[in-house]
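Put briefly, the fold is written as integer tokens. One such record reads:
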Amino acid sequence: MLTLLRTRLPEAARAVAPLVLVVTVVQVLFVRAPAPLFLQFLGGSVLVVFGMLLLFAGIDIGILPMGRFIGGELPRRGSIALILAVAFAVGFATTLAEPDVLVLSSQVESASGGSMRSAPLVLIIAAGVGLFTALGLLRVVKGFSMASLLTSLYIGMMLLSLVAPESIVSLAYDAGSVTTGVLTAPVVLALTLGLASVLSQRSEVDDGFGLLGLASIGPIVVILIMGLL
């Protein structure tokens, strides 16, 4: 555990360092924010480093191994319906806790003056991720082309973008960009790699990747359709 923390601490610090450097340069040369506010920013940055450290450690210790185990165990049950149900549940549940999704939904509620509520938006985004995560695992099981699937989905997504209300289009694409974040990405990847690893004569590289791109389409398509309705 201590070794993992020592390994991850420099990674977390390097991840935050560019932001701290840029803000410091802007503070010194241009904006001159009050000293208490700048010190508050530095203190918050330190908390972010330790928060990322704990998050990375939790992912390495628990989330990735369990995700791969579940993905590897599901095919042995002999039920595609079970695989799809678990994939939907995992995609849905992790998106509900995704920090980026929660931030976006709260900002949408604030900017819209409460006309668009945060909680329903989170549920809609989570449902889109869950549906397309299930579709991605179905692709892994059946072995059909990811390129063909993504091409057809992107064409449909662009057509929907042309007819949906402009405000909904903007929200839909932002929703797609925040879904596969720091929590959803490792869970979905681990689940898919675990599933691909037990399928005979299949490549984990070919089948285990691409699902995050596919899952991010889900909220976009779902929100565009709801905007039309």
Remarks:
- The chain has a mean pLDDT of 90.
- The chain has ten helices and no strands.
- Residues 1-61 form one domain.
